[in-house]
Write a structure and sequence with these properties.
Helix content is 42%, strand content 12%. It is α/β, with parallel strands linked by helices. The N terminus is likely disordered.
């Protein structure tokens, strides 16, 4: 096919899908990236979140495109229909759930990984070495032994499934991979606090334990797993013929940021011969700060750890990791190499061990590159300072809430999460609706995006600080807006609190 002037449009090449005019393509790339970077540069002046307009949703429901469209036209669609309507977590006043806010260096790593298009399931190429380096850095962060294994994952949910699969296969009295859980002579059970993240129950469900095999241990007044209750529950299960195999401890619970007594749980697990998995999704990374290192150091005693780069280490979504102390147990849970994946001593099929033997996925993207870019560009000390600052901001916010008569702190501030509410003379259900209405209004107005949860059955405004762009003044604005909206809604309660759950 000839490559005349008519083919110069980027995105319309000759025989391949590559462009005919590479310089035009570069200009298109630069323009697209410039727009996205400008949006990030000016983010503070933008609403935190805006709902996707109906017209955009309609365009995003159109049928499968059959014909090519010029890349510049596609970029224009992106700029108009997609770029302005993101989750909001790149904004300094995004405080909801547990969302990292990303870094530009990480975004560059993501884009470059796309250009290299490596498959990191295995084989002998540089992306494997980058991921190994990143896993080595993870070992350093958590003081894990050099003999441990690791894998980058989509997040802590996947890391938890992988770790608990290794725990299950190591502690079951049968070959679960071959015979299935039904062949186990005793029912396998495990333990986590009632505040543990839902990904633990999901893992129990997916791995065939069943959700009711996850015993939920009550928490103390600080929302930490009760160690005496855990010991009692293990003993009771043993007496009934169950087979306790694993405890999942939380290094920072999702609701309140509570850190379980990791050293105490580790000692109990050792005494009982149980596998200790630590959900370190975000809180575990506070081990990098002098303040929290003493309480989190015992993460090193765990048999496995799952955590995220995309939360408190600010790597763009998605990027998490799992570490398993017994690399043999980890590999035994997943390795399955057929003839078409046979290892070789020489050539591209070398490079053992392959990552596909440590998790369920064969094809895997070059996630490690955005982690590598983020950590190399900022350095782990700088990233740790963000963690320490977010914790200081949470404590300050907790103090301000406690000082205001109209506001009520619903849980102690353990780490980076503040749960509070606007308190008014309303019945319990109306008070819940009022606080949910305040959060919805803050989000819809674009002022701030906290989320909600229930603390002791009561609706809470939940502020989770994993955002390197947040300043004290952002939190001051949040509080003044909560108070303004609380007063406004309680002065005209009936219609406002009834509408649409707001
Ligand atoms: C404590 C905790 N564990 C697990 C998860 C799940 O992590 P991911 O969303 O990366 O799968 C979260 C997410 O917020 C979390 O806060």
């Amino acid at each position: 096919m000839s490559r005349g002037a008519g083919d110069a449009e980027p995105g319309r090449g000759g025989d391949s899908l590559d462009p005919a005019d590479w310089d035009a393509l570069k200009r298109s790339f630069h323009a697209a990236i410039d727009q996205a970077i400008d949006q990030l540069r000016d983010i503070r002046e933008q609403p935190v979140w805006r709902p996707t307009p109906e017209a955009v949703k309609a365009r995003l429901s159109s049928a499968l495109p059959r014909r090519p469209e010029a890349l510049d036209a596609v970029i224009r669609r992106f700029a108009e229909d997609i770029l302005p309507y993101g989750t909001g977590n790149i904004h300094p006043r995004f405080f909801g759930w547990v969302h990292g806010s990303g870094t530009l260096a990480g975004a560059l790593g993501e884009a470059l990984a796309g250009l290299m298009n490596c498959n990191v399931g295995g084989r002998d190429h540089v992306a494997v070495h980058v991921e190994r380096q990143v896993i080595g850095w993870c070992r350093e962060i958590f003081a894990y032994p050099a003999t441990s294994s690791g894998l980058l994952t989509s997040g802590t949910s996947m890391g938890t499934i992988i770790a608990l699969a290794a725990a299950r296969d190591a502690r079951a009295e049968i070959d679960v991979r071959q015979h299935g859980m039904a062949a186990a002579p005793r029912r396998l059970v495990g333990y986590a606090s009632s505040e543990a993240h839902s990904c633990v129950a999901k893992a129990f469900d997916l791995l065939g334990f069943g959700r009711d095999a996850l015993r939920l241990v009550p928490v103390d007044a600080d929302f930490r797993l009760s160690l005496p209750r855990l010991a009692e529950m293990i003993a009771a299960d043993r007496a009934l013929g169950f087979h306790p195999i694993v405890v999942v401890a939380s290094a920072g619970t999702v609701n309140t940021g509570a850190i379980d007594d990791l050293a105490g749980i580790a000692a109990l697990c050792r005494a009982e011969g149980l596998w200790l998995h630590v959900d370190a999704a975000f809180g575990g990374l506070a081990v990098l700060t002098p303040e929290f290192a003493p309480r989190l150091g015992a993460v090193a005693e765990a048999d496995s750890i799952a955590f995220d780069f995309h939360k408190w280490l600010q790597v763009p979504y998605d990027a998490g990791a799992v570490l398993v102390k017994d690399a043999g147990a980890h590999r035994a849970a997943f390795a399955d190499r057929r003839d078409y994946l046979a290892p070789a001593k020489r050539g591209l099929a070398g490079g053992e061990p392959w990552f596909c033997d440590y998790g369920p996925e064969l094809s895997r993207g070059f996630r490690a590159l955005k982690v590598w870019f983020t950590i190399k560009t900022h350095g782990i000390d700088r990233l740790a300072e963000v963690i320490a600052r977010n914790c200081r901001q949470a404590r300050r916010l907790g103090r301000l809430v406690a000082e205001r008569r109209e506001l009520e702190l619903l849980a102690p501030v353990s780490l980076n999460i503040v749960c509070f509410r606007f308190a008014a003379a309303l019945d319990a259900a109306a008070l819940d609706r009022l606080n949910e209405a305040i959060v919805a209004e803050l989000q819809l107005s674009g002022i701030a995006a906290p989320s909600t949860t229930k603390i002791g059955g009561r609706a809470a405004i939940r502020v989770a600080l994993t955002n390197h762009r947040t300043r004290d003044e952002d939190l001051d604005l949040l509080l003044s807006e909560v108070r303004r909206l609380g007063r406004e809604f309680t002065s005209a309660p009936a219609p406002l609190l009834a509408v649409d759950g707001r």
